[in-house]
Write a structure and sequence with these properties.
The chain is mainly alpha-helical. It is built from 6 helices and 2 strands; from the N terminus they run αααββααα. The protein has a two-stranded antiparallel sheet.
Length: 129
């Protein structure tokens, strides 16, 4: 799957990927425990297992097997996911227009000075990230 054709991440997929990015390598049980912590309606192990397999099929995860346990790690970085999500929003909501997307972001209210400074630095090519 090419970068341009990356499968979109659902909210549930993104929740799992955030955990994987934070931890680096996880098992299904690690994800199950993290997802269910503080949740009233618990997610079943089979549900997490299906999601992990889908994420692997979509090109977001890879796994290695050690004895009876599968260890999953990211194939795609968090920054790549953010770009993919925003490009999807730009294309679907704003007809592919970067200008309309940015205009909408700024229409929501006053941008704090430190954030505005970071944006200006980025636009000037002085981004430190």
């Amino acid at each position: 799957m090419t970068k341009k054709n990356l499968q979109k991440l659902s909210d549930a997929n993104l929740e799992i990927m955030k955990l994987v990015w934070r931890r680096g390598e996880v098992t299904i049980n690690d994800i199950l425990e993290a997802v269910n912590s503080g949740r009233k309606d618990k997610v079943k192990r089979a549900t997490v297992q299906v999601q992990m397999r889908r994420l692997e099929r979509y090109g977001w995860l890879k796994h290695r097997k050690d004895t009876r346990e599968f260890y999953y790690s990211p194939l795609r970085g968090e920054a790549e996911a953010k770009v993919s999500i925003l490009h999807n929003v730009r294309d679907r909501v704003f007809g592919g227009s970067y200008a309309e997307l940015v205009k909408c972001l700024f229409a929501g209210g006053r941008v704090p000075g430190d954030e505005l400074q970071r944006i200006v630095e980025f636009l000037n090519g002085n981004d430190k990230e």
